[in-house]
Amino acid sequence: MKEFIRINPKDVVAVALTDLKAGHAIHLDGMEPFELKEDIPKGHKFALEDLKEGAPVIKYGMPIGFLTRAVKQGEHVHTHNVKTGLQDLISYSYDKESIPAVEKPHRSFMGYRRPDGKVGVRNEIWILPTVGCVNNIIQQVAEKSKHLIGGSLENIVAFPHPYGCSQMGDDQEVTRKALAALAKHPNCGGVLLMGLGCENSNLKVMEPYLEGIDPKKIRTLIAQEVHDEFVSAMELVEELADYAKSFEREEVDSSELIVGLKCGGSDGLSGITANPLVGHFSDYLVARGGTTILTEVPEMFGAEQILMNRADNEEIYEDTVSLINDFKQYFIDHDQEIYENPSPGNKAGGITTLEDKSLGCIQKAGYSQIYGVLDYGEPVQHKGLNLLQAPGNDLVASTALVLSGAQIVLFTTGRGTPFASPVPTIKISSNTGIYDLKRNWIDFDAGRLLEADENMDSLGEDFADYIFKVASGEKVNAEKNGFHDMAIFKTGVTL
After folding, report:
1. CB-based contacts of 243: which residues, under 8 Å, 6+ apart?
2. In this model, does residue 431 exceed pLDDT 70?
3. Residue 267: its pLDDT value, please?
4. How many CB atoms lie under 10 A from the CB of residue 495?
5. Backbone φ, ψ for residue 385 (5° rounding)
6. Model pLDDT for residues 331-383, shown as the tens digit of each residue
7. Using CB atoms within 10 A as the burial measure, which of 182, 189, 493, 495 is most buried?
8. Residue range 12-18: average pLDDT?
9. Segment 221-268, tens digit of pLDDT
């Protein structure tokens, strides 16, 4: 196994791939050997040369911050001697990076073709509340309906949430758009939308948001208007089960696959193994006519100009500028620090500044051109790589990817997490240690890239094969564990 890595030839730091002790000899091509002056934990950085106070710390070929004191070759470079170089609102310029379009032979998966032409990778019934007051009821209905699962009907899932009432303005609008997007999702073969009856987002108000849904796919119920809401709901779920079972998997082209890209609990290896592996797959799918979506806007801060220059045209560039600055303004409006990131877990894993985290984060987007920028809850319109407005929070951002049409979410992690989203959520570990420890959480080990006999092309093929198996029905760990999570973006005042 490799002991350390210099990611880019321009870098003035290297990253330890295993715990290294003070005095350990470092041999790097083109440099005189030297010894580490301090212990360097796995995932953390050490200086490759003497650096002056105020000097930029170059990693991924880009500055991730500036030194607050002089550092000697072989010393630990981290939060104790580095500060961010980021500012609040920035003026950007478009320097388009022309990326040759790559087309490769398409491949197929076995999916569910819906009457509206969309394709699902699962065939489930989703039970959605228009208001949190009926959460317990929908959960009971989902549990008591499990006997209906069979044939091509794969699951019946309730998605409780605390919203739908006592919200104002855009906050209420976000909830309505989110519920409608879930109801329209192609992984859902049938949907029961249950309301209480007196909430702001009652079923009458929701009607225009639900336009275009196949009437055979959706049933609605107002709990205050029936004698026994549980019995009534069970009857409606039975009807939906009959309809959902009319669908069967069929061969579908890779151009119909939409995959969301997300990371969480990152460590110092995330930008070296797991995120680049996901980026490799993003390019792989785009080259085969498919679609990927990158989100968590605050974790683009510090690397946004790289993304902007990959915009396919000036309109998309301007949309990307707005995506970044609008989210910064959201922080400012709420009197919050824009760069209050990385998290304590990130720092413990070796990530020093938001630039460090962001440059690692955008590795998930590969190297493709950007063809679309999406508002929260907006369905994807353009094939290829898209950017999506959503926060960094794992559950909220993963749900946002689903609202925009992702049938699968790829989630990289250096520290592990059991959470799920409404769709199959594939966990990719940045290191083999967490993979071995949490086999019940992690689905794929990107830490294999650190092995001497492994490379991105070979592991990338294995990874792509696995994703297409999941698209064709193979369950991920979160599904095996019975985990299905959903979280709506909270943006305003609660009355």
Report:
1. 189, 190, 216, 217
2. yes
3. 85
4. 8
5. -80, 130
6. 888 887 766 667 788 888 898 988 888 898 899 999 999 999 999 999 999 99
7. 189
8. 94
9. 999 999 999 999 999 999 999 999 999 999 999 999 999 999 998 888
**Fold of the 1-83 domain:** 2.30.130
CATH level 3 topology of 124-248: Rossmann fold (3.40.50)
Find tokens 């990152």 and name the residue. Answer: 266
pTM tops 0.90, yes or no: yes
Check if the beta carbon of residue 163 is closer than 8 Å to that of residue 131: yes
pLDDT at 49: 96
